[in-house]
Amino acid sequence: MCKLQFSLLDSACGKPHIVCEMARIITITNQKGGVGKTTVCASICGCLSEMGKSVLAIDLDPQGNLSFSLGVDATSGGYTMYNALKQTVGIYDIIQHTEICDVAPANITLSACELELTSVGREHILKEQIDTVAADYDYILIDTPPALSVLTINAYVASDWLIIPMIPEILSLQGFAQLQETIYAIKKYYNKMLEVRGIVLNQYNPRLILTKEVEELANIIAEQLDTDVFQQKITSSVAIAEAPAHGKTVSNYAPRSKSSMEFSDLTYEILGLERPKRKSSKKGRGRVKKDVKA
C-alpha cells in the first residue's frame, strides 16, 4: 500500500495534493568476494525492520545467499529475480514475506542474465521493476554479486546510495580503481544522483598492525570516492557466522550480542541519525548488600 502524505494545496483546484514517498534504495557492493556483503545487507535489513521501517531485500547474487540468510528457500521452484529481470513477471509477483522483511529472492538461474539481457536499455530493467513497488517501502536494499556485471550495473542505476564493505586485508583493496571508474560512468550516463554513502570495515581487529595499515589506505580510497569510512566497525563473531543457518539476522539471532549492537549503531550512522542511548547494565548478580554492624 502506498505511503501518502499531504502537501500544500494544489494551486489549480485548491484541494490537498497527495505525494507518494519513494523508498531509499541502497546497494551493498564490492567486486571482491568474501568481504561480507551479504552479512552487511541482511543485518542492516534486520536493524531497519526493528526500527519499524518497511524493508524490501533484493537478492541480485546468483548464489542466493541473501535469500537463504533471510529464511527464504529459492531453490524449490517459483519466480525469482531472474524472472523479474527477464520481465516475464513483475517484481511484485516474486516477493516473499518473512519475519524480518520482504525478500525478492534469487538462485543460480540469475547467472544466465549476463548472456540473455542484450536488449537496448538493459541497464534500466531493475530500476523499472523497483519503481512499481518503491512507494510500498521505506528502504530497499540490494545485495550484488562479487563482479562488475550487468546485474551490478542494474543495481547502481536503480540506487540512491552505495555501501562498500571491505575487510582489513591487502587483497580487499584490489579492484577499487575499476570500481571507481564504474561509479563515475554510471553517474555520468545513467544516474547522476548516485552517492557512495560510505565504506564499512568488516571483520575488524584493532589489535593487528595490518588492520591499521589497511584502514589508512581505506581512508585514502574513501577520499577518492568522495565519501568516508564509517566510524562504526564490524568485528568478527560466532553469532554472525551462526545466524544465517537459522534464517535470521544477527540482531534476531543474538540481540544482546556485541555484533548486534555494532550493526545497530552502523545502521543509525548510515541513516545519519543520532545513536540511541543505552542503559548501563548492572555488574555482578545485583545482590543486596548486608548491613554491617558497627
Describe this structure in words.
This protein has 294 residues and is α/β, with parallel strands linked by helices. The chain is built from 11 helices and 9 strands. It has helices at residues 37-50, 65-69, 81-85, 113-116, 125-131, 150-158, 176-189, 209-224, 238-242, 250-253, 258-271, and strands spanning 4-9, 16-20, 24-28, 55-59, 96-97, 102-104, 139-143, 161-166, 195-201. The strands form 2 sheets. The chain has a 7-stranded mixed β-sheet, with helices on both faces. A two-stranded antiparallel sheet has the order 1-2. Helix 1 (37-50) packs across helix 11 (258-271). The chain is globular and about 50 Å long.
Question: Could you give a short description of this structure?
Answer:
The protein is α/β, with parallel strands linked by helices and 294 residues long.
Provide key terms for this protein.
alpha/beta; seven-stranded mixed beta sheet; two-stranded antiparallel sheet; globular; disordered C terminus
Write the layout of secondary structure elements.
Elements: E1 4-9, E2 16-20, E3 24-28, H1 37-50, E4 55-59, H2 65-69, H3 81-85, E5 96-97, E6 102-104, H4 113-116, H5 125-131, E7 139-143, H6 150-158, E8 161-166, H7 176-189, E9 195-201, H8 209-224, H9 238-242, H10 250-253, H11 258-271
Parallel strand pairs: 3-7, 3-8, 4-6, 4-7, 8-9
Antiparallel strand pairs: 1-2, 5-6
Helix pairs in contact: 1-11, 5-6
